[in-house]
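Methods: example folding runs. The two proteins below were folded one after another, and each record is reproduced exactly as written to the output file, sequence line first and structure-token line second.
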Amino acid sequence: MPDAGRRAAVPHGYGVPMDPIEQRVIDHLDALLAAYEIVRIDPDLADTAAFCEHYGYALEDSANAILVASRKPEGRNALCLALATTRLDVNHTVRDLLDVRKLSFASPELTAEVTGMEIGGVTPFGVPDDLRVYVDAQITVLPRCIVGGGSRSMKVLVDPEVFTRMASVQVVDGLAG
């Protein structure tokens, strides 16, 4: 992992130029002085299981960013980051955090509208400042974690301590299990 505040060179693999959302993610990581590396990938392999199998990353070191949306009342959204080997506790923990009666996983369309990112590339970095972000506490004790990079063509290998320093993030025990 590079030293904090230094980023790895970003090769433009698979003929994909730097996307504005990817640049927004990198700018956010740099502003946080995060220790991270950029991993360019084939967008057809962006889904976690396929990515890990093809590129040799462990599921235990991979986290998924999932947008949840309230249904009663409508209009409350949060981005939740959980290890790929766990499941979000949507029916209790996340619902209680958002103080709503009904909650579901957001559609791909709503995810893109709220985050500016496609499923398979969603990340807590570079999201709107007013979006609540919950990170499962299990992630913060890992030596490194691979998360989305803003697009299906990029992942970010990051030191998860950065989540404890992000103003928009609440680290939650029991967010996933």
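Second run, written to the same file directly after the first:
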Amino acid sequence: MRLGDLGPEGEWVGLGETPDQEITFGAIGRFWAGETVWRSITADDFATFAEPGCARIGCNLSFREYGPRTLVSYEARTSATDDVARTAFLRYWRVVGPFVGVVMRGTLRLLDRTLAAEARRGA
């Protein structure tokens, strides 16, 4: 998935953007039972989706000037559509949650190195 390729319909959809400052995106599915099953949705349907047994993931990346650098923030929130999905997600999150932080820190380090290399090339 590339953020620049997100459209208003699909498994992962763009939910909004402020150019050069912030991008929000999300997905809906069942991702805690071994096999991840994403729903194809539209951005307009994201907020009101209520099919039992699923969860919504809303994500945000923001970029803010911080002196000579850029502060990059990432936030993700998950909302289950019913109590059964919520219980299953929380059980799943207890196992994978600590590793998500490791992956995100690695992603941010890669972004930092990529942007620094582009700056050196004058891109």
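Comment on the second run: The chain is about 30% helix and 35% strand.
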